[in-house]
Amino acid sequence: MKAASPPPPKHAGQVFTLVALVLATAFGLAWTRLPAPLPEDAPKDAFSAMRARAHLEVVARRPHPIGSVEHAAVRAYLVEQLRALGLEPEVQEATVARTRYREPRLAVVKNVVARRAGTARDTAKGAGKALLLMAHYDSRAMTPGASDDGYGVVAMLEVARALAGEALASDVLFLFTDGEEEGLLGAQAFATQHRWAGEVGVILNVEARGNAGPVMMFQTGDDNGALVRELATAAPRVVGSSLSQAIYRRMPNDTDLSIFLPATPSLNFANVDGLEQYHSPTDTVANADLGTLQEGGANLLGVARALASRPLPLPAEPDATYFNVGTLFARYPCAWDLPLAGAAAALLGVFVGVARRKGELRLPFAALGALASLLVVAAAALAGLCAWTLASRLHGDYALVNAARPLLKGLWFATFVALGAGLALAAQASLRGRLRVAELFAGSMTNVVVIALALASRMPGASFVFTWPVLAALPFAIALVATGSFDRDDARGVAAAAAMAAVPLVIIAPFVPQIFITFGPPIGLVIAAMAANLAMVCAPAVRHLLEPSPRLAPRVALLGAAASLVAANAVGPFDGAHPRPESVLYAVDGDSDRSFWLTPDAAPPAWASLAFVDQTRGAAPLPFPPQHVLAVPAPATVEPRPVIAWIDRDQVRVTPPAGAGLLAVRVEGASHLRVDGIPLPAVLGAVSFRFFAPPAEGVLIDLGARAAGPVVIRVASQRAGLPAGLSAGTRPEGSMPKPGGWDTLLESDTTLVAVSSTR
Ligand SMILES: [Zn+2]
């Protein structure tokens, strides 16, 4: 009689593996969950999002762009609140320019600055430095700016309150900057003109790009080791990774902190979820995510309290590598990146050696496994790219997908993930019997190790994403081959395969939605590639997922991709809560007394079709070459105009009409000039600049020693709103003024008046 042990239940390994993979992913995503907002009666030394919300009701009541009436009201409120806390706030008023842009940007900014004295107060004598908290109090023109940067502003007020009664060693400076949206102008004015600028030892900046989601510490100054340690111990819920720091070092994206980086020790905080509300009329207090405000505020308070408790600045320490591991936060010196990547390579070498000796791995087939993994990832990226490119051709609205409702974006995310995973599962199902699991696994891990080594030597702080999945999985893999077969179906085999998949899922999986949230559906090819790569790296677990019915899992994933693709194409991008962004402006050409409706959109809004019925495109009366602006004749109205007054041949004063928030000026025929004393360079024989919040008495342009030829000055003033009694149509419920791009002159629902003068 044969003593047969009972066969394991057919689906047990499959179900166990599925549950383990889901649990690992869920643990990995733990850091993206938000805390509950603390109530108004929370302990006095704690950060309460509900207390901060009361400030937000005032700060984010209405749009408050630089120079507007509401902007002045917000500033007055900040001064009043700081005074009520016993501080002596001041308003730093300064004329400032940033000339690094193609069109230099200038403004008269009004920063609100306050100082909280430390107990070891000797910063004035130069013995110690101060901690600076920073957020910008201006908003874009169309948005109440509850999150951008209302969250930062009210968090600073609540932090100032919580710290009010505490004795802290170092001074704390509160800087509410102006004109961030127009080009970091307030921060520039503080850094270059304020008497306290030289006392700053550490900066904490708070920003928002969207109104929801976890608040990440995404950027630091150089030599961040000590600051990251402080962050890790003092922030109640630290979220951040040296991967984003590595990426941001190479990106042109700006916040106020850019002015101070990389030399000043700094931490930059921002949330990026809820991108559809960014700069939009829907970024309101009602739509605010108080969990985001609570997380960001409590972290700001914890870190500010810890830093101000000691002499500043902290001693410079080499950069750290850091990242979230579920509910934990890992950090170690960046200098370990390369040795750790080397250790991963060594472990892989050991695995290959042992597996070869045991007859479980043939080297040429492991090389084929590496090639197959690469091809699968490339195929996933290509499929994601094709799906999105085709859909974008079909739906003109997808050009505005950043503003689309989360349902649409969620369906696209599901499509890319299911597509990438489905292709990888299908490939593994079809490779069964041809490549052994150990060969496929060694192949895909080889690709990962190569990337880890390359990043560790070229992009400090980024390699952990690829190093740790190898370091964590290989000991299990080596143990399996050393003690028997790598490819086995008993409980130990199934458990070890799940353990090998756990760390890749915990560390990498959360970056998949975060990258999608940050960049939107156009990044779909990367999302599909990441999903495919994860499925290849987890090959041993996937093998158990494919048993006993190898075709089931790939079919489910690919059918899921097809279903969400169909659903995404059937869902409209906009609804009442997420209106369609549409622009209409009114412009007067003061030289010819002609008026126009303008739109920079691809097509005029349907509700304004009567105004735009005469599509014989006129030349837009703008002081720069018009780009993609549709201009059609409009009824004339009386609009106050900017005035160009020549003082003499070399000096001219440009005065804005009452209510203008912006002067756009183009001077042709000048090689250089000074605006209110600030020198501006010429590009191709002309100087163009934008002057925000121009003073009522105007701006003085000094042409210096000009050449013989004529000088042409073109000026356009911009004011909020359209002429009274005139409309291009009635904007319906589901439409909103388009959130501003970088070209602030073409902001929707504004009136432009252009004039020119030659001399
Ligand atoms: Zn902002």
Task: Describe the protein.
The chain contains 18 helices and 23 strands. It has 759 residues and is of the alpha+beta class. The strands form four sheets. Strands 1, 2, 3, 4, 5, 6, 7, 11, 12, 13, 16, 19, 21 and 23 form a 14-stranded mixed β-sheet that branches. A five-stranded antiparallel β-sheet has the order 14-15-20-17-18, with no helix packed on it. A two-stranded antiparallel ribbon has the order 8-9. A hairpin with a 4-residue loop joins strand 14 (643-646) and strand 15 (651-655). Helix 2 (49-59) packs across helix 8 and helix 11 packs antiparallel against helix 18. It is globular and about 95 Å long. The relative contact order is 0.11. The model is unreliable at 1-5 (pLDDT under 50). Zinc ion is lined by residues 136, 148-149, 180, 207.
List the helices and strands and how they pair.
Blueprint: H1 12-28, H2 49-59, H3 69-84, E1 90-98, E2 105-116, E3 130-136, H4 150-163, E4 172-177, H5 185-193, E5 200-208, E6 216-220, H6 225-234, H7 242-248, E7 266-271, H8 290-308, E8 320-325, E9 328-333, H9 337-357, H10 363-394, H11 406-431, H12 437-458, H13 464-482, H14 491-508, H15 511-519, H16 524-537, H17 539-545, H18 552-570, E10 580-582, E11 585-589, E12 594-599, E13 630-633, E14 643-646, E15 651-655, E16 662-668, E17 672-675, E18 678-681, E19 686-692, E20 699-702, E21 712-720, E22 735-737, E23 750-758
Parallel strand pairs: 2-19, 3-4, 3-5, 5-7, 10-22, 11-23
Antiparallel strand pairs: 1-2, 2-4, 6-7, 8-9, 11-12, 12-13, 14-15, 15-20, 16-19, 16-21, 17-18, 17-20, 21-23
Helix pairs in contact: 1-14, 1-17, 2-4, 2-8, 4-8, 6-8, 9-12, 9-13, 10-11, 10-12, 10-16, 11-16, 11-18, 12-13, 13-14, 14-17, 15-16
The structure holds zinc ion.
Residues 136, 148-149, 180, 207 line the site of zinc ion (ZN).
